[in-house]
Design a protein that fits this description.
By secondary structure, the protein is α/β, with parallel strands linked by helices. It has 15 helices and 14 strands. Strand 1 and strand 2 form a beta hairpin.
Length: 398
């Protein structure tokens, strides 16, 4: 049974293993609320997951340790289990979905685990891990639906209350629910007046749907850039704890997540993965009622795959109006490009790419299409440029 004593015991066990992560004030993030960032993206292994994994493994008996441990993960729990097992001289095998970022797969190996890649998503890796557990006799370390794991994650709640005792609300990412369950249980047990808000990706809202239906729901598929919270089905333990202790669950889109990642890079010089940035996305896009409140956004992890970081930044720039594409129909005659670029330059836009196409199907024989990518300040700036071009007689495609 999950108790506050267990969370405090986890905090004691983890004292010399994990980092008590920084709480950073982020005054430029919101004009409506006082935002603080709980930086678990700077945790050992780059994610909060090491807390629950290490505490769980520390509580195994000698027989369980001797059999070795197995786990399934989208990447972050894998690294936590690998590190914890290696530190305790235990053999570990991790099942990861084959779509997990290469950086997470390689990091798991570096921490000392063997890796089994499974076709599909997290839930497919979970089923394979259970099969191997039965075949080989491994001790299974669940990523979220385990009271010791939940207690380990709950130590973040204790740290938040130590760092900001008068916090009004905490915004927390949700995948399977281990993080928010432990954190909400710890904080609400000590101060029930603090609001706990959960955030899921709109393409993987398994806990939200389960709470709405008052029973665990299994999604047919999940799709989100936040691979760390792409979970089809929450745990039975985490579901019950969330029902009791979480005030509200909301969702954010991939574009909103991308904007949050970009905002963290630009304003805080900090990198978060998709799952780690959903809490800030909820605050930035007013998904939860935090006006006038002192708010902590938990940045749960920073293990973003650098190969997709540029794409995420591009999405974030588009969402924020910092980048825009224009397609303009022109007469194919000298001076047209000069006229267009002159208007854009006069209004402070910066052209970064140009494509001129003469053979556009369906257009007049003496017409052409001009595709322009430009850097802009915001959506109002984009509209200002569009309006100026149309006022000058240029025909813009929607």
């Amino acid at each position: 049974m999950l108790t506050l004593d267990k969370v405090y015991h986890a905090s004691y066990v983890l004292k010399n293993v994990i980092r008590a992560t920084d709480m950073i004030h982020a005054p430029n993030m919101s004009v409506d609320a006082e935002i603080y960032l709980k930086c678990e993206n700077l945790q050992v292994t780059g994610s909060f997951k090491v807390r629950g994994a290490y505490y769980k493994i520390s509580q195994l008996n000698e027989e369980e340790k001797k059999r070795g441990v197995i786990a399934c993960s989208a990447g972050n729990h894998a690294q936590g289990v690998a590190l914890a097992a290696t530190k305790n001289h235990i053999k570990s095998l991790i099942c990861l979905p084959d779509g997990a970022p290469i950086s997470k797969v390689e990091a798991t190996k570096r921490y000392g685990a063997d890796v089994c890649l499974v076709k599909g998503v997290y839930d497919d890796a979970y089923q394979r891990a259970l099969e191997l557990k039965e075949e080989k006799g491994y001790t299974f370390i669940h990523p979220f639906n385990d009271e010791d794991v939940i207690a380990g994650q709950g130590t973040i709640g204790l740290e938040i209350l130590e760092q900001i005792p008068d916090v009004d609300a905490v915004i927390v990412p949700i995948g399977g629910g281990g993080l928010i369950s432990g954190l909400a249980f710890a904080i609400k047990s000590l101060n029930p007046n603090i609001k706990i808000y959960g955030v899921q990706a709109s393409g993987a809202p398994s806990m939200l749907r389960s709470i709405e239906h008052d029973q665990i729901q299994t999604l047919k598929h999940v799709s989100t850039i936040a691979d760390g919270i792409a979970v089809k089905e929450p745990g039975c333990n985490t579901f019950e704890i969330c029902k009791k202790y979480v005030d509200e669950i909301v969702t954010v889109t991939d574009d909103e997540i991308s904007t949050a990642i970009l905002t963290l890079i630009e304003q805080q010089k900090m990198v978060a993965e998709g799952a780690g940035a959903v809490s800030l996305a909820a605050a930035l896009f007013h998904k939860v009622p935090i006006q006038g409140k002192k708010v902590v956004c938990v940045l749960s992890g920073g293990n973003i795959d650098v190969t997709i970081l540029s794409r995420v930044i591009s999405r974030g720039l588009l969402k924020a109006g910092r980048s825009a594409d224009l397609t303009i129909e022109l007469l194919d005659k000298p001076g047209q490009l000069e006229g267009v670029s002159g208007i854009i330059a006069r209004l402070g836009g910066n052209v970064v790419a140009v494509h001129h196409d003469r053979a556009s199907e369906g257009s007049d024989i003496n017409a052409c299409c001009l595709h322009i990518v430009m850097e802009t300040r915001d959506h109002e700036h984009i509209q200002e440029i569009r309006t100026a071009l149309m006022d000058a007689g240029y025909q813009l495609k929607i």
